[in-house]
Write a structure and sequence with these properties.
The protein has 28 helices and 16 strands. It is an alpha/beta fold. The C terminus is likely disordered.
Length: 672
């Protein structure tokens, strides 16, 4: 135990639902990520990237001026290696998800996974064109099989270029081409980073970071993008729907099953199983009034945006859900799953069920999910949860939940702005050009228990909305905003600046757009690319008044995302802590060096106010470079629903003058 201050529940989380359960955990002497963060002091050497353990001559902790490792590795080399390895791990995790989706598509297309169907054939055809798969006169299953083969080949490809790179704007492709950064194959780039950072290999920090960039691009414009596209093909391309978020979605009188992780192949089948009338009757025979399915983390985002499955919360809610005492089973697959779930669940009746062949947790029940018998496996899991219902003890479900409008895919945004016949990003570009929308921020990423849960996400989003900045979100950041009510149309009236409010009223969208799970950041890349193609905002992603950020990041995946976004031309801000703080050289390379090469950069900023200040400064700088009007909120807000309501409060003569500059016959049709 250290002398570090133990935070109150209010200091640990901005979510009122969390406060009740953290107070209970504290009184019961139960450990959570929040309490462990308070008692475990982070290693300042490792946090700054200054510890090297890549061979058994170390670990070498470089804490003195000019100190080098046993092999002679400098601080700059060690910090660059550690950063690159984290990027490789993050890229591997998200891209491997894409590989699994491709194999599922193959099995579905060939009849080996009969529980899966092609839900969006139009998306399949668009992918086929990009991958060079012929479509004319062919059955949809034949096309799907070849698309799957082409996608799988992108992982093992050894030479050439990944095919999805051509989805980037032409100028961006030229930059990558001239610098030699277009990935050759997804797996090859991950392997090369690990090779280069092995003891005795690459020892130039900039050269090491070059490999990290190419590896990250293989994820963002390769594995992750394929994962999103194939998920849309199999489960449907999202369009907006109304759902609910927070722990209040759990039901006291029903069997509660939490799905947690990142694989929609599993969660979609469990959703089908809980709708089975036979299993619902079985639940009633055990004393329950039904079966309730809810999500945690990115599985939650996947099922929320496609099927409206309620979200019980983001990353730091996984333990809190168990603390409610109302969860019969937490079903997990891959990524962001805490090993602490099992010992915590042993204090309750909750069963932790692992399902991936890649993931086992000591003490958990393992039921391996097989796509070839998907629905049968899902039914077995649901039946186990039902059998556990009679074991439930006291429950403490916080009465806290928020409505959200989720599911803004790239395709739907295109439709919303122009309809079926004239789908276009032109209205969005025009709103930015005119200054109604000052710019765009993509707020993504994790929770981190070393900062107040959701607080930075919610602060920066509120500030951006007040300044007429449209916000798009994925991952746990999206859930943070959803819990706060920012993903409703009302938020435009209550929080947004006058220009953004007018756009939201006209189009019928909330001021914060939910775009999916963390793997779905590729949707943001394609949105930015189409904005460039539409015209008026420059020739490249780097020209757009836009910023990306992960203010509560904690995972290696976040570093991979940040790297491919920066290499795509985006200014990226990360909060909480800097893993490269130990090296001024590496810090400068990620910022000034990458800006010179790519027009994008990566900076680590811990103060939320400074995050907002720098983001707005960059947006205004990009507007000036494009010779757009200077942002001026005072010229907006005189139209839209709110203006009509204001006018209706005026005396009739004044209303005529305000609307028409004087009395006219048509004004008489307005109510007195």
């Amino acid at each position: 135990m250290t002398g570090k201050k133990v935070r109150t529940p209010q200091e640990r989380s901005a979510d009122p639902a969390a406060h009740l359960l953290l107070e209970f955990a504290e009184a019961a002497g139960l450990s959570t990520a929040f309490s462990r963060a308070d008692t475990l002091a982070p290693c300042p050497i490792g946090a700054d990237g200054l510890c090297c353990r890549n061979c058994s001559m170390g670990p070498c902790r470089l804490v003195k001026e000019g100190q080098v490792g046993v092999c002679g590795a400098t601080v700059d080399t060690v910090v660059a290696r550690n950063f690159a390895r984290a990027v490789a791990a993050g890229a591997a995790a998200h891209s491997d998800h894409g590989r699994d989706m491709a194999f599922t598509l193959k099995a579905a297309a060939t009849g080996q996974a009969p529980d899966y169907k092609i839900r969006d054939p139009y998306k399949l055809l668009s992918i086929a064109r990009i991958l060079g798969v012929p479509t004319d006169g062919r059955h949809i299953e034949e096309i799907a099989s070849d698309v799957a083969d082409a996608a799988i080949a992108q992982f093992g490809q050894q030479t050439g270029q990944i095919l999805y790179a051509k989805r980037a704007p032409a100028r961006r492709q030229r930059i990558w081409q001239e610098l030699g950064y277009i990935p050759r194959g997804i797996d090859r780039e991950v392997v090369e980073v690990l090779h280069r950072t092995h003891m005795g290999d690459d020892q130039d920090p900039e050269h090491i970071l070059d490999a990290a960039i190419r590896c990250a691009l293989a994820d963002g414009w390769g594995g992750s993008m394929l994962a999103t596209d194939i998920s849309d093909v199999l489960f449907g391309t999202p369009s907006p729907l109304v759902a609910q978020m927070n722990l209040g979605v759990l039901k006291k009188d029903q069997v509660n099953i939490i799905i947690h992780g990142h694989e929609p192949t599993l969660s979609e089948m469990i959703l089908a199983a809980v709708s089975d009338p036979g299993l619902i009757d079985y639940a009633r025979s055990k004393g329950a009034n039904g079966i309730n399915l809810a999500g945690i983390c990115c599985t939650s985002n996947e099922t929320l945006m496609r099927q409206g499955v309620p979200s019980a919360g983001n990353f730091l809610h996984q333990e809190l859900a168990i603390l409610t005492g109302a969860v019969e089973a937490m079903v997990v697959d891959v990524q962001c799953i805490m090993q602490a779930l099992v010992p915590l669940a042993q204090n309750f009746h909750t069963e932790i069920i692992t399902t991936s062949k890649k993931v086992k947790i000591t003490g958990a029940t393992h039921i391996e999910f097989d796509e070839h018998h998907a629905l049968d496996t899902a039914r077995e899991i649901v039946r186990r949860a039902i059998d556990n219902f009679p074991n439930r003890g006291e429950t403490r479900i916080p009465d806290v939940r928020s409505d959200v409008v989720a599911g803004f895919s790239h395709e739907y945004i295109n439709y919303a702005l122009g309809g079926v016949l004239r789908g276009s990003f032109r209205p969005l570009n025009d709103a930015i050009i005119a200054g109604r929308i000052r710019g765009v921020v993509a707020d993504i990423g994790c929770n981190n228990p070393r900062t107040t849960q959701d607080a930075i996400h919610q602060y920066v989003v509120r500030e951006f909305l007040k300044n007429d900045v449209l916000v798009v979100e994925t991952g746990c950041g999206a859930i943070a905003s959803g819990k706060r009510g920012f993903m409703l149309g009302e938020a435009a009236l209550e929080v947004a600046g006058p220009g953004l409010r007018e756009v939201c009223e006209a189009v019928g969208i909330p001021p914060v757009l939910h775009m999916g799970s963390c793997v779905d950041n590729s949707r943001i890349l394609t949105v930015l690319s189409q904005m460039v193609t539409e015209g008026g905002l420059g020739e490249d992603i780097s020209d757009i008044p836009a910023v990306g950020m992960a203010p509560e990041w904690m995972s290696e995946k976040a570093l991979a995302i940040a790297t491919y976004a920066a290499a795509s031309g985006v200014y990226v801000i990360m909060g909480v802590t800097s893993p490269v703080a130990g090296s001024e050289t590496v810090t400068r390379l990620l910022s000034e060096g990458w800006r010179a090469k790519f027009g994008g950069r990566l900076e680590f900023i811990t103060d939320p106010g400074e995050i907002v200040r720098r983001a707005l400064a960059h947006i205004d700088e990009r507007r000036a470079a494009l010779k757009l009007p200077e942002y001026d909120a005072s010229q907006w807000g005189k139209s839209g629903d709110r203006r009509v309501l204001e006018l209706l409060q005026l005396p009739f003569a004044e209303r005529q003058a305000a609307l028409y500059g004087g009395p006219v016959a048509v004004a008489a049709t307005l109510p007195m």
